[in-house]
Amino acid sequence: MSNHISVEDVPLSRFHRLLTVRSGGGSFVDGYVLSIIGIAMTKVSPALGLDAFWEGLIAASALIGIFFGGFIGGALTDRLGRRVLYFVGPTLFIVCSLAQYWVQSGEMLFALRFLNGVAVGIEYPVATAFLVEFLPKRYRGPCLATLTILWFAGAAAAYLTGEAILNFGGPDAWRLTLASTAVIGALLFLVRLGTPESPRWLMSKGREQEAEAIIKRVYGHDFGLKNLPQQAECQHLSFGSLLHSGYGKRMAFVTIFWTCSVIPVFAVYAFAPRVLEALHLSGNWASYGSIAITLLFVVGCIIATRLVNSLGRRKLLLHSFLWSGLALLLLGLLRDGPSMVILLMFGAYALFIGGAQVLQLVYPNEIFPTEIRAAAVGVGTSMSRVGAAVGTWLVPISLQTIGIGYTMYIAAGITFFGLLVSWLLAPETAARSLEDAASLDAPQPKVSGNLSKRSSW
């Protein structure tokens, strides 16, 4: 029977679920790292004597690190293999997070958070490429989308943990808050022990015997290379050559839509309490409002995960940009409105942007071939973080100079630009094998409601 079954058509197994946890742990740490600074900043600034310039720079430092880590991680993951790079991120998380406990200056904190950002940047290409190359096709979208849910879960955990430590941790509580990431990094390192290499990557390097052994180990002794879909013969081409051969348009789409979907989100997470205060929400409204909005981001991603197959990638992305952009526009228009209206609009943004967020990891892993998949994810990660870093750095300056209203208008404009680019360039990849989705010549499939019934997990 297995002679005729592709590894992309097998049921979801315990191995697949464990691999989702192993890869998703990196997303959880990412959300935690990028959000914990927003909680600690109110205590860090007076302790280290930071001005608005250094506040913005430190908030953006991890994003700057992601820029370099994405390029490095993508290139090395395609060259050295998925498994080798799988443990670099957790190691950096542990070392750099512990070192933050003894930080004495803004410059030192910037450097350590920059290195944590490098670790995050490495995580994106290696963890997602690892996952997508093992998953059955009908579970690919939901499982990859789950990584984004875990990102927001990590962000929510940062807010909850950060508030608890700052309230009960004593005078150096902000140091404990920043160092707390090391605990998650250690758990991630341990849970990844025993993960095998990707057979698709081994095949791309001509290591067929090793690939065969891993397929039998994961799928059963009746499976082998005969059950692995034929991969395109493009390993002789460089990354640049593949972009010129037609993948450049896809790279542009991924980079632009990813950038437009992360700039407002990271700006909100880095300075959520300050943004809410600028919208006249202070005290408990700002504190608990930040937590509520974070949880709504998680809910939005969960809803998008359930729709990623049935609605389709393209339609989900367009709706996400449209409605979240309108919510930001209304935040600018109603900036002097009642507190409950402000929170309602922020909550609507958090819910609707979930579609674009989950597709950040789905699209780039589906529309590029194995030989450049991790590199493409790395480039998309890096380039999107350039905009996110600049946007995050400018938030406190923007709030001081042009005010909250125009800041929200700019965020809405960025979101609507993402909508325009997605409408022009976004392909549909639901219901396609990984090879077909990455092919430039394969026809577009019709997305049926039946797929969603089969893809629930």
UniProtKB/TrEMBL annotation:
<feature type="domain" description="Major facilitator superfamily (MFS) profile">
    <location>
        <begin position="19"/>
        <end position="430"/>
    </location>
</feature>
<feature type="transmembrane region" description="Helical">
    <location>
        <begin position="316"/>
        <end position="334"/>
    </location>
</feature>
<feature type="transmembrane region" description="Helical">
    <location>
        <begin position="109"/>
        <end position="132"/>
    </location>
</feature>
<dbReference type="InterPro" id="IPR020846">
    <property type="entry name" value="MFS_dom"/>
</dbReference>
<feature type="transmembrane region" description="Helical">
    <location>
        <begin position="144"/>
        <end position="161"/>
    </location>
</feature>
<feature type="transmembrane region" description="Helical">
    <location>
        <begin position="374"/>
        <end position="394"/>
    </location>
</feature>
<feature type="transmembrane region" description="Helical">
    <location>
        <begin position="173"/>
        <end position="195"/>
    </location>
</feature>
<dbReference type="GO" id="GO:0005351">
    <property type="term" value="F:carbohydrate:proton symporter activity"/>
</dbReference>
<keyword id="KW-0472">Membrane</keyword>
<feature type="transmembrane region" description="Helical">
    <location>
        <begin position="21"/>
        <end position="41"/>
    </location>
</feature>
<dbReference type="InterPro" id="IPR005829">
    <property type="entry name" value="Sugar_transporter_CS"/>
</dbReference>
<dbReference type="InterPro" id="IPR005828">
    <property type="entry name" value="MFS_sugar_transport-like"/>
</dbReference>
<protein>
    <submittedName>
        <fullName>MFS transporter</fullName>
    </submittedName>
</protein>
<dbReference type="GO" id="GO:0005886">
    <property type="term" value="C:plasma membrane"/>
</dbReference>
<feature type="transmembrane region" description="Helical">
    <location>
        <begin position="285"/>
        <end position="304"/>
    </location>
</feature>
<feature type="transmembrane region" description="Helical">
    <location>
        <begin position="340"/>
        <end position="362"/>
    </location>
</feature>
<feature type="transmembrane region" description="Helical">
    <location>
        <begin position="251"/>
        <end position="273"/>
    </location>
</feature>
<dbReference type="InterPro" id="IPR036259">
    <property type="entry name" value="MFS_trans_sf"/>
</dbReference>
<feature type="transmembrane region" description="Helical">
    <location>
        <begin position="406"/>
        <end position="426"/>
    </location>
</feature>
<keyword id="KW-0812">Transmembrane</keyword>
<comment type="similarity">
    <text>Belongs to the major facilitator superfamily. Sugar transporter (TC 2.A.1.1) family.</text>
</comment>
<dbReference type="Pfam" id="PF00083">
    <property type="entry name" value="Sugar_tr"/>
</dbReference>
<dbReference type="InterPro" id="IPR050360">
    <property type="entry name" value="MFS_Sugar_Transporters"/>
</dbReference>
<feature type="transmembrane region" description="Helical">
    <location>
        <begin position="53"/>
        <end position="72"/>
    </location>
</feature>
<feature type="transmembrane region" description="Helical">
    <location>
        <begin position="84"/>
        <end position="103"/>
    </location>
</feature>
<keyword id="KW-1133">Transmembrane helix</keyword>
